[in-house]
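2024-03-11 09:14:02 INFO worker-7 job=invfold-0412 stage=load source=structure_tokens
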């Protein structure tokens, strides 16, 4: 998939690592420390994120 979204449309849209989607990679997003310390992900929230990604059945095509 290749996304061609404007600035507004591309907010909160992420691609998979290793795929040229034109979007910031989900892995990069998750590994970048938040600017606001209150937004840090603790262990419980990390588990929730993993389950949400699994539930979305995000998989590479091929």
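2024-03-11 09:14:09 INFO worker-7 stage=emit residues=62
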């Amino acid at each position: 998939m290749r996304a061609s979204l404007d600035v507004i449309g591309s907010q909160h849209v992420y691609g998979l690592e290793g795929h040229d989607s034109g979007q910031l990679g989900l892995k990069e997003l998750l590994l970048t420390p938040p600017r606001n310390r209150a937004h840090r992900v603790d262990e419980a929230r990390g588990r929730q994120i993993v389950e949400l990604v699994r539930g979305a059945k995000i998989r590479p095509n091929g």
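2024-03-11 09:14:09 INFO worker-7 stage=report msg="The chain has a mean pLDDT of 81."
2024-03-11 09:14:10 INFO worker-7 job finished
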